[in-house]
Amino acid sequence: MAFLFGGKKKLGIIELAGLMKTNLEVLTSTSSSKAVGKARTEMTRVLAETRKLALPDEAADPVAEAGGLSGEGSESAVAALAAVVLEDELLGNLLENLTLLEFEARKDVVVLFERLVREQADGGTRFPVVEALCAHDEVLSVIMLGYGNTDIALNCGAMMRAALAHEPVARWLLLSDELFLLFDLMEDTSFDVATDAFLTFRLLLTTHSAAVGEFMEQHYVPFFESYARLLVCENYATRRQSLSLLGDFLLDRSNIATMKRYIASSHNLKTIMQLLRDKSRNIQFEAFHVFKIFVANPTKPPAVLHILKRNANKLVNFLADFQKDRRDDTQFVEEKAYLINIIQSIRDNDSDSDPPAGSSPAAPVSTSPATSAAAAPVQPPPRSSSSAASATAAHGRLASPPSSSSSSSSSSSSSSSGTSSAGVLEYDTGTVVNLATVVLKGVHQPVNNPTS
């Protein structure tokens, strides 16, 4: 086939696709090592030529990232390629036999796949390749199962993330058994595989909020049972990234219903309190940003309130000395003081003197000897105008935590105004979220100034 690359004649997409099919048949049905070797070499050349034809303006080095292409290439060539790979099931055959291809050929398959899932039709109202993938989801399953092979795991991860740009694919993955395969992959001992799987997982949870919200409403329990494993797994990178994602996910305004359910669980609170004591300072810090949501919730369930009350003194001491070297992080310092003030209010309030029915004893948070003495009450620092503005820009209005002396008066005023004495977040949509919190870490979604 030297004429293909060294001669005058250049083949089009249809001819190149035919050569792919021919060589794939050799790779999958021939026992001759010589014939297989020749077919692999030809597949590499054919895929490279197809890529040049479909993506002439693309950079030479294909970074395997979802959507990471610099050029749109020849629209007619891409459309022709999309038609032929769907008609002849060539795409599925390529993906099923990805391990049989050479390294460079695999990269070309990834690049072509990323471009194909972006191919539009009917004036941009349809994505034919995506529709075909969802109609024949065994191809998507092949991609996910490919994650289990370290030789092609990163290739499969890049293709899945490209497909997840489309909501129908996200809905498929959320409802498929492969979702729980993703949890297993994130606990993989291979750093590269676990990290890549987590990139896919984060994209899945943060790209299509409507699909994720509907999924959580129906499948909250099995999902967070699996998520809990990530928080305590032996893979350090997975534990840290899972905590960071959990904090960001719960604080996202589109996940309010899930957040309320999560912070209503005393079991979840205990898990996060244990992670506050992790030997890794980074994990402690990420755990803090989840713990603060439990504490700032003005409508704590009895079991959660009881854990905080029982451990109040130790928590106050612990937080007072918690990562004090971050003194230059003004937001973190203010958040700590805010939480300490709330916990002191819980401690001084006698309304939760008896354990709630059915609750189990809380695991106390241990502190170092240096912090064993009772700490003096720490009042939250006055919030500067810039800090208040940051809080509003992040998620809405933040009311100051109530003191024990003013709780009764604030309660009466809250009932008339429709806001909680412990603070609420009001969004520009008019939705009032029953959660008092501090300046929210990692959330920068400006909203209109709330009205009282």
From TrEMBL:
Molecular function GO labels: protein serine/threonine kinase activator activity
PANTHER family: CALCIUM-BINDING PROTEIN 39-RELATED, PROTEIN MO25
Biological-process GO terms, alphabetical: intracellular signal transduction
InterPro entries assigned: ARM-like (IPR011989), ARM-type_fold (IPR016024), Mo25 (IPR013878)
UniProt protein name: Calcium binding protein
Record field: compositional bias (Low complexity): 354-377, 384-421
Pfam family, one: Mo25
Positions of region (Disordered): 349-423
Family: Belongs to the Mo25 family.
Native source organism of the sequence: Thecamonas trahens ATCC 50062
